[in-house]
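2024-03-11 09:14:02 DEBUG pipeline.ingest accepted 1 chain
2024-03-11 09:14:02 DEBUG pipeline.ingest length=139
2024-03-11 09:14:03 DEBUG pipeline.predict start
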Amino acid sequence: MEVIFTGTLKGSDKYIHQQLSKLKECGLDQFHFIKKIDIDYSILDQIEKIIKLVFNISDDISSNSKKLEYAQSRMMYVHYARKLGLSTYEISKKLNRHITSVYFFIKKFDEDIQYDKNFIQKYIQVEKEIKNNIKFDSI
């Protein structure tokens, strides 16, 4: 069985070696570890501009407005930031929000993408704009 791990290596080299040895003991002889360290923030900034355009927002997404379009734009921003590999902590710092708010945005995005027709239409618009304007393979 081949397993691909993604994430950042934390801890000393000895600790990491011990963790990888435990995986081998479990029968995982072949595995690859991909270290995500180079996140392209310019792509995230471009996605933020597209989201602001689709939701017709002039202020910053991280503003304290509780209007529906601002809240949904933050949910969508968190969705794409996670797809790019940012941790919830990094997203919370970027949005100037508490980390529990980021978890709420993730949960609310999953709910709205299933039931809210307007949100689904805006998500489709954002997807089209991203595919037309941004050249990359990670999303």
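2024-03-11 09:14:41 DEBUG pipeline.report The beta strands are 2-7, 30-35.
2024-03-11 09:14:41 DEBUG pipeline.predict end
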